[in-house]
Design brief:
Distance between the termini: 14 Å
Strand order of the largest sheet: 7-6-5-8-9
Shape: globular
Low-confidence stretches: none
Bound molecules: phosphoric acid mono(formamide)ester, norvaline
Oligomer: single chain
Number of strands: 9
Order of helices and strands: HEHEHEHEHEHEHEHEHHEHH
Radius of gyration: 19 Å
Structural class: alpha/beta
Mean pLDDT: 97
Helix content: 40-55%
Largest sheet: 5 strands, parallel
Length: 303
Protein backbone atom coordinates (compact mmCIF):
# COMPACT_ATOMS: atom_id res chain seq x y z
CA UNK A 1 0.00 0.00 0.00
CA UNK A 2 1.62 3.24 -1.20
CA UNK A 3 -1.26 5.70 -0.84
CA UNK A 4 -4.76 5.96 0.60
CA UNK A 5 -6.70 7.39 -2.33
CA UNK A 6 -9.92 5.38 -2.06
CA UNK A 7 -11.05 2.15 -0.38
CA UNK A 8 -11.56 0.50 -3.77
CA UNK A 9 -7.73 0.29 -3.94
CA UNK A 10 -7.30 -1.57 -0.63
CA UNK A 11 -7.48 -5.28 0.02
CA UNK A 12 -9.51 -6.63 2.92
CA UNK A 13 -6.24 -7.57 4.63
CA UNK A 14 -4.90 -4.02 4.30
CA UNK A 15 -8.08 -2.60 5.82
CA UNK A 16 -7.93 -5.03 8.77
CA UNK A 17 -4.21 -4.30 9.31
CA UNK A 18 -4.96 -0.58 9.54
CA UNK A 19 -7.78 -1.23 12.03
CA UNK A 20 -5.54 -3.47 14.15
CA UNK A 21 -2.77 -0.89 14.20
CA UNK A 22 -5.30 1.84 15.01
CA UNK A 23 -6.50 -0.18 18.03
CA UNK A 24 -2.89 -0.59 19.16
CA UNK A 25 -2.11 3.13 18.77
CA UNK A 26 -5.29 4.01 20.65
CA UNK A 27 -4.23 1.71 23.49
CA UNK A 28 -0.73 3.22 23.53
CA UNK A 29 -2.14 6.74 23.60
CA UNK A 30 -4.55 5.93 26.46
CA UNK A 31 -1.71 4.37 28.47
CA UNK A 32 0.82 7.10 27.65
CA UNK A 33 3.08 4.60 25.88
CA UNK A 34 5.30 6.64 23.56
CA UNK A 35 4.95 5.85 19.87
CA UNK A 36 6.97 8.53 18.11
CA UNK A 37 7.53 6.35 15.09
CA UNK A 38 7.38 9.24 12.60
CA UNK A 39 10.00 11.40 14.30
CA UNK A 40 11.31 14.06 11.93
CA UNK A 41 8.63 13.42 9.27
CA UNK A 42 6.50 16.21 7.85
CA UNK A 43 2.95 15.85 6.58
CA UNK A 44 1.57 18.59 4.31
CA UNK A 45 -2.19 19.02 4.68
CA UNK A 46 -3.86 20.70 1.71
CA UNK A 47 -7.41 21.91 2.29
CA UNK A 48 -9.65 23.15 -0.49
CA UNK A 49 -12.75 22.69 1.68
CA UNK A 50 -13.57 23.42 5.34
CA UNK A 51 -12.75 20.93 8.09
CA UNK A 52 -12.79 20.52 11.85
CA UNK A 53 -12.15 16.81 12.49
CA UNK A 54 -9.85 16.03 9.59
CA UNK A 55 -7.64 19.02 10.13
CA UNK A 56 -7.32 18.73 13.88
CA UNK A 57 -6.98 14.94 14.02
CA UNK A 58 -4.27 14.84 11.32
CA UNK A 59 -2.34 17.70 12.91
CA UNK A 60 -2.58 16.23 16.43
CA UNK A 61 -1.91 12.73 15.05
CA UNK A 62 1.31 13.51 13.23
CA UNK A 63 2.53 15.44 16.30
CA UNK A 64 1.79 12.48 18.59
CA UNK A 65 3.80 10.29 16.21
CA UNK A 66 6.78 12.63 16.62
CA UNK A 67 6.34 14.40 13.29
CA UNK A 68 5.09 17.76 12.14
CA UNK A 69 1.96 18.82 10.24
CA UNK A 70 1.80 21.77 7.87
CA UNK A 71 -1.66 23.25 7.30
CA UNK A 72 -1.87 24.44 3.70
CA UNK A 73 -5.01 26.25 2.61
CA UNK A 74 -5.39 25.92 -1.15
CA UNK A 75 -6.36 29.59 -1.28
CA UNK A 76 -2.94 30.53 -0.01
CA UNK A 77 -1.09 28.04 -2.22
CA UNK A 78 -0.36 28.68 -5.88
CA UNK A 79 -2.91 25.89 -6.61
CA UNK A 80 -5.51 28.55 -5.84
CA UNK A 81 -4.03 30.68 -8.66
CA UNK A 82 -4.02 27.82 -11.13
CA UNK A 83 -0.66 26.07 -10.64
CA UNK A 84 -1.26 22.54 -11.93
CA UNK A 85 -1.58 19.70 -9.45
CA UNK A 86 1.16 17.82 -11.34
CA UNK A 87 3.70 20.56 -10.55
CA UNK A 88 2.49 20.95 -6.97
CA UNK A 89 2.98 17.20 -6.51
CA UNK A 90 6.57 17.28 -7.75
CA UNK A 91 7.48 20.32 -5.65
CA UNK A 92 5.89 19.00 -2.46
CA UNK A 93 7.71 15.67 -2.90
CA UNK A 94 11.01 17.53 -2.49
CA UNK A 95 10.03 18.95 0.92
CA UNK A 96 7.62 16.58 2.61
CA UNK A 97 7.23 12.93 3.65
CA UNK A 98 3.50 12.72 2.97
CA UNK A 99 0.51 14.75 1.77
CA UNK A 100 -3.05 14.73 3.01
CA UNK A 101 -5.46 16.49 0.68
CA UNK A 102 -9.13 17.46 0.96
CA UNK A 103 -10.53 18.65 -2.33
CA UNK A 104 -13.39 18.31 -4.82
CA UNK A 105 -12.20 16.05 -7.62
CA UNK A 106 -11.00 12.52 -6.91
CA UNK A 107 -8.95 12.88 -10.06
CA UNK A 108 -6.83 15.62 -8.43
CA UNK A 109 -5.95 13.27 -5.58
CA UNK A 110 -5.05 10.51 -8.02
CA UNK A 111 -2.88 12.95 -10.02
CA UNK A 112 -1.09 14.12 -6.89
CA UNK A 113 -0.15 10.50 -6.21
CA UNK A 114 0.76 9.83 -9.82
CA UNK A 115 3.10 12.80 -10.21
CA UNK A 116 4.50 12.95 -6.68
CA UNK A 117 6.96 10.63 -5.03
CA UNK A 118 5.51 10.57 -1.53
CA UNK A 119 2.41 8.92 -0.01
CA UNK A 120 -0.89 10.73 -0.59
CA UNK A 121 -3.86 10.42 1.77
CA UNK A 122 -7.36 11.40 0.69
CA UNK A 123 -8.92 13.55 3.39
CA UNK A 124 -12.24 13.71 1.46
CA UNK A 125 -13.26 14.31 -2.12
CA UNK A 126 -16.70 14.48 -3.72
CA UNK A 127 -16.24 10.78 -4.50
CA UNK A 128 -14.87 9.33 -1.29
CA UNK A 129 -13.96 9.72 2.37
CA UNK A 130 -11.74 6.71 3.15
CA UNK A 131 -10.28 8.02 6.44
CA UNK A 132 -13.77 8.51 7.86
CA UNK A 133 -14.86 5.01 6.92
CA UNK A 134 -11.74 3.45 8.47
CA UNK A 135 -12.68 5.27 11.70
CA UNK A 136 -16.28 4.07 11.30
CA UNK A 137 -15.18 0.43 10.89
CA UNK A 138 -12.92 0.79 13.91
CA UNK A 139 -15.86 2.13 15.94
CA UNK A 140 -18.23 -0.61 14.78
CA UNK A 141 -15.68 -3.26 15.77
CA UNK A 142 -15.20 -1.62 19.18
CA UNK A 143 -18.92 -1.71 19.91
CA UNK A 144 -19.82 -5.01 18.26
CA UNK A 145 -16.53 -6.95 18.60
CA UNK A 146 -16.70 -8.02 14.98
CA UNK A 147 -17.48 -6.75 11.49
CA UNK A 148 -18.27 -9.78 9.38
CA UNK A 149 -21.96 -10.60 9.19
CA UNK A 150 -23.18 -7.29 10.65
CA UNK A 151 -25.70 -5.25 8.70
CA UNK A 152 -25.06 -1.56 8.00
CA UNK A 153 -27.91 0.65 6.89
CA UNK A 154 -27.14 4.02 5.30
CA UNK A 155 -29.91 6.58 4.89
CA UNK A 156 -29.74 9.58 2.57
CA UNK A 157 -27.52 11.00 -0.12
CA UNK A 158 -25.48 8.67 -2.33
CA UNK A 159 -22.45 10.86 -1.63
CA UNK A 160 -18.79 10.36 -0.70
CA UNK A 161 -19.79 8.70 2.59
CA UNK A 162 -22.25 6.34 0.91
CA UNK A 163 -19.60 5.43 -1.66
CA UNK A 164 -16.84 4.72 0.85
CA UNK A 165 -19.11 2.94 3.34
CA UNK A 166 -20.43 0.65 0.64
CA UNK A 167 -16.94 -0.34 -0.48
CA UNK A 168 -15.39 -0.54 3.00
CA UNK A 169 -18.21 -2.48 4.63
CA UNK A 170 -18.57 -4.96 1.76
CA UNK A 171 -14.81 -5.57 1.76
CA UNK A 172 -14.85 -6.53 5.45
CA UNK A 173 -17.83 -8.87 5.03
CA UNK A 174 -20.69 -6.70 6.23
CA UNK A 175 -24.15 -6.55 4.68
CA UNK A 176 -24.97 -3.10 3.27
CA UNK A 177 -28.43 -1.64 2.69
CA UNK A 178 -28.71 1.88 1.35
CA UNK A 179 -31.86 3.97 1.17
CA UNK A 180 -31.37 6.83 -1.30
CA UNK A 181 -33.97 8.82 -3.24
CA UNK A 182 -33.88 8.42 -6.99
CA UNK A 183 -31.46 10.85 -8.60
CA UNK A 184 -29.19 10.65 -5.54
CA UNK A 185 -27.69 7.19 -5.90
CA UNK A 186 -24.03 6.35 -5.20
CA UNK A 187 -21.41 6.63 -7.92
CA UNK A 188 -21.68 4.12 -10.76
CA UNK A 189 -18.15 2.81 -10.06
CA UNK A 190 -19.30 1.88 -6.56
CA UNK A 191 -22.51 0.28 -7.83
CA UNK A 192 -20.44 -1.75 -10.31
CA UNK A 193 -18.19 -2.90 -7.46
CA UNK A 194 -21.20 -3.77 -5.28
CA UNK A 195 -22.88 -5.68 -8.10
CA UNK A 196 -20.61 -8.64 -7.32
CA UNK A 197 -21.99 -8.89 -3.77
CA UNK A 198 -25.31 -10.50 -2.94
CA UNK A 199 -25.31 -8.83 0.50
CA UNK A 200 -25.74 -5.33 -0.97
CA UNK A 201 -29.03 -3.59 -1.66
CA UNK A 202 -29.89 -0.12 -2.89
CA UNK A 203 -33.45 0.73 -1.89
CA UNK A 204 -35.62 3.81 -1.86
CA UNK A 205 -37.47 3.12 1.42
CA UNK A 206 -35.56 3.90 4.63
CA UNK A 207 -37.73 1.54 6.71
CA UNK A 208 -36.82 -1.43 4.51
CA UNK A 209 -33.12 -0.57 4.58
CA UNK A 210 -33.16 -0.26 8.37
CA UNK A 211 -34.74 -3.68 8.94
CA UNK A 212 -32.65 -5.64 11.50
CA UNK A 213 -29.66 -3.35 11.00
CA UNK A 214 -26.80 -3.48 13.52
CA UNK A 215 -25.48 -0.08 12.46
CA UNK A 216 -27.54 2.87 11.20
CA UNK A 217 -25.64 5.74 9.64
CA UNK A 218 -26.48 8.88 7.75
CA UNK A 219 -24.85 12.04 6.43
CA UNK A 220 -25.89 15.56 5.46
CA UNK A 221 -28.34 16.04 2.60
CA UNK A 222 -26.12 18.69 0.99
CA UNK A 223 -22.38 18.10 1.10
CA UNK A 224 -19.69 20.75 0.86
CA UNK A 225 -19.81 22.33 -2.57
CA UNK A 226 -23.57 21.70 -2.96
CA UNK A 227 -24.72 24.77 -1.08
CA UNK A 228 -26.75 26.04 -4.06
CA UNK A 229 -28.83 22.82 -4.03
CA UNK A 230 -29.83 23.04 -0.37
CA UNK A 231 -33.49 23.90 -0.98
CA UNK A 232 -34.05 21.29 -3.70
CA UNK A 233 -32.34 18.70 -1.56
CA UNK A 234 -34.53 19.51 1.47
CA UNK A 235 -37.49 18.50 -0.68
CA UNK A 236 -35.86 15.43 -2.22
CA UNK A 237 -34.66 14.01 1.11
CA UNK A 238 -37.83 14.52 3.17
CA UNK A 239 -38.33 11.29 5.11
CA UNK A 240 -34.70 10.21 4.73
CA UNK A 241 -34.10 10.85 8.39
CA UNK A 242 -32.69 8.77 11.23
CA UNK A 243 -35.41 9.12 13.86
CA UNK A 244 -36.76 7.05 16.74
CA UNK A 245 -39.47 5.79 14.38
CA UNK A 246 -36.91 4.57 11.87
CA UNK A 247 -34.77 2.94 14.57
CA UNK A 248 -37.73 0.77 15.64
CA UNK A 249 -37.01 -1.25 12.50
CA UNK A 250 -33.33 -1.78 13.33
CA UNK A 251 -32.06 -4.26 15.93
CA UNK A 252 -32.80 -3.10 19.50
CA UNK A 253 -29.05 -2.81 20.19
CA UNK A 254 -28.26 -1.02 16.91
CA UNK A 255 -25.64 1.71 17.09
CA UNK A 256 -26.07 5.03 15.28
CA UNK A 257 -23.12 6.70 13.56
CA UNK A 258 -22.66 10.07 11.89
CA UNK A 259 -19.41 11.37 10.40
CA UNK A 260 -20.33 14.92 11.48
CA UNK A 261 -21.01 17.76 11.06
CA UNK A 262 -24.70 16.90 11.54
CA UNK A 263 -27.76 18.94 10.61
CA UNK A 264 -30.20 18.19 13.38
CA UNK A 265 -33.81 17.66 12.25
CA UNK A 266 -32.66 17.12 8.67
CA UNK A 267 -30.86 13.77 8.24
CA UNK A 268 -30.98 12.96 12.00
CA UNK A 269 -33.26 14.11 14.80
CA UNK A 270 -31.75 16.00 17.72
CA UNK A 271 -33.13 13.33 20.07
CA UNK A 272 -31.41 10.42 18.25
CA UNK A 273 -28.21 12.42 17.97
CA UNK A 274 -28.08 13.08 21.73
CA UNK A 275 -29.09 9.55 22.66
CA UNK A 276 -26.28 8.10 20.56
CA UNK A 277 -23.75 10.85 21.28
CA UNK A 278 -21.29 8.52 23.03
CA UNK A 279 -20.75 6.33 20.00
CA UNK A 280 -20.86 9.26 17.56
CA UNK A 281 -18.11 11.10 19.44
CA UNK A 282 -16.09 7.90 19.85
CA UNK A 283 -16.36 7.68 16.07
CA UNK A 284 -15.00 11.24 15.80
CA UNK A 285 -12.17 10.35 18.21
CA UNK A 286 -11.31 7.29 16.17
CA UNK A 287 -10.43 9.52 13.21
CA UNK A 288 -7.27 10.31 15.18
CA UNK A 289 -6.29 6.71 15.80
CA UNK A 290 -7.24 5.39 12.36
CA UNK A 291 -5.34 8.16 10.58
CA UNK A 292 -2.29 7.68 12.78
CA UNK A 293 -2.34 4.04 11.66
CA UNK A 294 -2.59 5.13 8.02
CA UNK A 295 0.33 7.54 8.42
CA UNK A 296 2.48 4.90 10.14
CA UNK A 297 1.70 2.39 7.38
CA UNK A 298 2.45 4.86 4.60
CA UNK A 299 5.15 7.09 6.02
CA UNK A 300 6.93 4.89 8.55
CA UNK A 301 8.91 1.73 8.62
CA UNK A 302 6.62 -1.33 8.80
CA UNK A 303 5.60 -2.13 12.35
N1 LIG B 1 -16.17 14.07 9.31
C1 LIG B 1 -15.30 14.97 8.83
O1 LIG B 1 -14.53 14.72 7.89
O2 LIG B 1 -15.32 16.16 9.48
P1 LIG B 1 -14.61 17.51 9.03
O3 LIG B 1 -15.30 17.99 7.78
O4 LIG B 1 -14.82 18.44 10.20
O5 LIG B 1 -13.16 17.24 8.77
N1 LIG C 1 -20.66 14.36 2.79
C1 LIG C 1 -20.08 15.39 3.61
C2 LIG C 1 -19.12 14.81 4.58
C3 LIG C 1 -18.47 15.81 5.51
C4 LIG C 1 -17.46 15.19 6.41
C5 LIG C 1 -19.41 16.44 2.73
O1 LIG C 1 -18.76 16.05 1.77
O2 LIG C 1 -19.56 17.62 3.00
Amino acid sequence: MKHLLKLLDLTTEEIIEILNLADQLKYEKKHSIPHEVLKGKTLGMIFEKASTRTRVSFEAGIYQLGGHGLFLSSQELQIGRGEPIQDTARVMSRYLDGIMIRTYKQDDVEKLAQYGEIPVINGLTDFSHPCQVLADLMTIREYKNKLEGLKLCYIGDGNNMANSLTVGCLKVGMDVSLACPSGYHPDQKVLDFAADYNNFELLSEPVKAARDADVVITDVWASMGMESEVNDRRQAFKGYQVSHDLLKHAKPDAIVLHCLPAKREEEITAAVMEEHANVIFDEAENRLHAQKAVMVKLMGNER
